[in-house]
Amino acid sequence: MHLNKILLSFFLLAYAFTRADAFLWFGGETRRNTAVMEEARAAYARSDYAAAVDIMEEFLLKNSSKQYLREAYDIIGRSYKMQGAYDKALLKYGEAVEFFPNDIPLNLALADIYYIGGLNGKAVQLYDKVLKLDGDNLPARLALARAYLAEGYFTKAAQYFRGYLDGGGSADADFYYDYASALFMANDYGGALDMAQKSAVLKTHAKTSFLIAKIYKAAGEENRAFDFIAAAGAQEGADDEILLTRALWLAVGDGWRESIAIADNYLKTSPRNKLALFIKYIALSRAGRAKEGLKYLRIIAEQDGNSGSGLIQNLARKILKTPQPPSSVKTSNLKI
Fold first, then answer.
1. Going by C-beta distance under 8 Å and a sequence separation of 6 or more, which residues neighbour residue 248?
2. Residue that terminates a domain, selected from 100, 118, 136
3. pLDDT in tens, 240-269
4. Which of 83, 103, 147, 229 is the most buried (most CB within 10 A)?
């Protein structure tokens, strides 16, 4: 009986020590993991993204616990993104979504990387997935609107811009500009003008005045179109596209003399610019010098078809194939 009591006491003491050791060991591991995570967060906060990646990559090699796994992947992904290493960010966020397939922030982060990389189709799939998980997710609605806009699905883009607003999303000048662009490309000129004017109220910028000018031009309000494109040319952000678009409008109207001067001046430094060459053709044709103008179309047509301005190049080739009077040349489909 006495021996049994001694043995029982021994086992109870052994069990107590084992529990204490386990507690100390696991507690120590938790403290170490917490310290490593704090170190990585601090590195990211001070913009030392390379260090944050190194710390977290080593952490992932040594730890299989899911407790910090999600944040570790997120820190690595964000760090790569901040360094502009989008391919590496894509791989890391892809791995993260495999572990956490229904995690909304991780899916959004991966979709954003696809969008930045121009893989809009992939981005659309993920944004749509997020909305299936959370139908009221405003970042996904807005991102989906912009992805559809980039893909050329203008009516769908406008619907998601509208849905973002209806859901209570905040709107700045860039939002209204993008929404206006979608509506304009969808031929809703009234709605486009309304959104573009809201953008202009919040921020004066050449691109907004230029868009308003194009809307008025498409709606047949020539005088207002020229007023706004002139204003755009004098505002912050004015570029060559604004200059050349005004020259094109002059060329198809009665301002061919001025458009020739603009095109000639531009072609001195950019002799193969398709729009400038096309303007020269239109202006010369309006001046009764159509045969002279055809050489500019040939320069356009002979350029590499993958070098941009495809619509202008296709139009030039069509005119060369079937000559037509300048008054019958349709430029409205160029949306400029």
1. 259, 275, 278, 279, 282, 331, 336
2. 100
3. 999 999 999 999 988 999 999 999 999 999
4. 147
Structure tokens at 55: 């710390």
- What's the CATH number where 184 sits? 1.25.40.10
Q: How far apart are CA 128 and CA 144, in angstroms?
A: 7
Given 109, 144, 167, which residue is the final one in a domain?
A: 167
The per-residue pLDDT for 13 is: 44
Distance between CA atoms of residues 173 and 219, nearest Å: 23
Residue 244, helix vs strand vs coil = helix
The DSSP-derived string for 293-319 is: HHHHHHHHHTS-TTSS-HHHHHHHHHH
User: What is the per-residue pLDDT across 183-235, written as a single tens digit (0 to 9) for each?
Assistant: 999 999 999 999 999 999 999 999 999 999 999 999 999 999 999 999 999 99
Identify the domain containing residue 275 by its residue range.
Answer: 250-336
The whole-angstrom separation of Cα 10 and Cα 134 is: 57
